[in-house]
Amino acid sequence: MARLVSSSLVRGLVRSCRAPSTAENPVIIFMKGYPEAPRCGFSALAVKVLQQYGVSITARDILTNMKLKESVKAYSNWPTFPQIFINGEFVGGSDIILSMHQKGELKGLLGDSAQKGEQDSAQ
Amino acid sequence: MMGSRGTSVVLSRAARMRQKLQSALEASALDIEDVSYQHAGHAAVKDNANETHFNIKVISPKFEGQNLVKRHRMVYDLLTDELNSGLHAISIVAKTPTESGS
């Protein structure tokens, strides 16, 4: 039962980031540690890449919540962390985020929120 | 699925990973680098755990027409047993022969 509860929690978290028109909260990362204090190099890398776009990032630490960890893995069918969701869609882990960043694909995916972020950080 | 388990006991994780990836992906190039030392003392790594973190670079014709998520899933699926037995993280570079220019 606990599993069901937390898998709907994951779905809720991911869904809450699906706000294309306002793009208030497009990015969620399930990671080891927190953006300010990542506890794994791969999580640190993913956060660093995402922060280049100035978007607001919702982060959840899976090391301190085993139930969440297992639920996220089951939800995305992806075995490792970090896991990044953008606009409610699973995007991948740190390798994929980095690769998309290098190929210039991340900007399009983040859309208006990224541009807004860039403007904000330019001021 | 469970076919040739008998041999894997004596092999290192790196060797098992190589076997699984090489045969299933028909890789034309496969680099497996153990980078566990970079993660020693890592939050989720228990004492004395080794062979927990790897960099994998694989070139396979089977990646043709597959996006990155699908390519990574193919690698993860092949390494399910390892991920369930202490392998924590792998960094994956997955290219097609065309993309790698070889």
From TrEMBL, chain A:
GO terms for cellular component: mitochondrion. The lineage of its organism: Eukaryota, Viridiplantae, Streptophyta, Embryophyta, Tracheophyta. Signal peptide: none annotated. May only reduce GSH-thiol disulfides, but not protein disulfides. Belongs to the glutaredoxin family. CGFS subfamily. This is Glutaredoxin domain-containing protein. InterPro entries: Glutaredoxin, GRX_PICOT-like, Monothiol_GRX-rel, Thioredoxin-like_sf. It comes from Triticum aestivum. GO terms for molecular function: 2 iron, 2 sulfur cluster binding; metal ion binding. Residues 27-91 form the Glutaredoxin domain. PROSITE patterns: GLUTAREDOXIN_2. Keywords: 2Fe-2S, Iron, Iron-sulfur, Metal-binding, Redox-active center.
TrEMBL record, chain B:
It is found in: Plastid, Chloroplast. Keywords: Chloroplast, Plastid, Transit peptide. Its main location: plastid. GO terms for biological process: iron-sulfur cluster assembly. InterPro entries: BolA, BolA-like_sf. The keyword Chloroplast applies. It comes from the Eukaryota. GO terms for cellular component: chloroplast. The keyword Cell membrane does not apply. Belongs to the BolA/IbaG family. This is BolA-like protein. It comes from Triticum aestivum (Wheat). The lineage of its organism: Eukaryota, Viridiplantae, Streptophyta, Embryophyta, Tracheophyta.
